[in-house]
């Protein structure tokens, strides 16, 4: 039995029965049967379904958002924004997606031609985390349905209410049984599903450990896998930056979703010439964040997703201090019920500490001082992750250096990093491989078939 616990109160709000082996087999049969039909449906009709799913999300926005807030603690305002983003993604792929599937002719020097065409491959298993319970899923689901694949969702156990609602939205929009199904299962059931011949590929967003396990299982089965794993993104501030704007955005970039986002700015790397000024502005804004009831519209940050997650962050802070770092402010559990943690700042973190191999999945920033752009880039790259980055400078030469030399899948210039349906999303190094979103996300789980034609 899976339990939904409200992290703001510690109270149990629901239980969810787990699928047994027979139930899993039935779901896989349905996914396979649905694919056999769905792959033959005209792309215009598949796009029309995406529009109807978007309409269903629109009609149920408050219900969806409230469930996310109750199950994992994000503020209601941010939960509504997440649902809106999902709606935008479904509509984007419905409008722009069909053109991404157009065939391309290639003339051959030997005569005749070859045509590249895109075809679906089958049911795709998605192993997804709790931090963005709708958006993480929609990033795979919208393109999967557009191209003719079907979807199977293994969601985190603490957001099964959100998972059930997502399946309900597809059915309410007229999606056939088996087109998209939630699998309420534990992680130990995933390997057998990946190995099953009815499953064509797997995508995972989650921890490095989970990514390694799923990649190994997919490798044994010789199946395509896309991995979006952890990040410890740098937020670099140079002397020419607008310090007020940078400090304001740095707070949002660090405490959004209570700091529980793979692309949160986790390491603030500041040029020594503006370090003190930035720290003063950043500290004042971090201390001003209103932490409390996520259902209250004036709350700026809710609890962490669970007491266990809060305790994990507290353990990391203790580890950092043991290594020589200083907890300048915050990073403390708040009194009363709920998994609350005050926004914090760590300074003087040794670059050679084993702690630098970890990701802080909570609202605590690390500050580093850099003497020049070369040192800023060295600090940015001196970790095993390579997901996103944000750089703040008005110098065109510095912008070009950062884009070229920061080892990451994404770089934002003079803004905090965020995802968008239109642009590819993903990282390098131990942050994973493959891309979601945009045309690249559409093509990840397709058969690029080459057709040769004689003269």
UniProtKB/TrEMBL annotation:
What is one Pfam family matched by this protein? Aldedh
Q: What family does the Swiss-Prot or TrEMBL record give for this protein?
A: Belongs to the aldehyde dehydrogenase family.
Gene3D superfamilies in alphabetical order? Aldehyde Dehydrogenase, Chain A, domain 1, Aldehyde Dehydrogenase, Chain A, domain 2
GO MF terms listed in the record are:
aldehyde dehydrogenase [NAD(P)+] activity; succinate-semialdehyde dehydrogenase (NAD+) activity
Under CDD domains, the record lists: ALDH_SSADH1_GabD1
**What InterPro entries does its record include?**
Ald_DH/histidinol_DH, Ald_DH_C, Ald_DH_N, Aldehyde_DH_dom, ALDH_GabD1-like, GABD/Sad-like
The alphabetized UniProt keywords are: NADP, Oxidoreductase
Keyword flag Membrane:
no
* Top-rank lineage group of the source organism: Bacteria
- The name on file for this protein is NAD-dependent succinate-semialdehyde dehydrogenase
- The residues covered by the Aldehyde dehydrogenase domain are 2-451
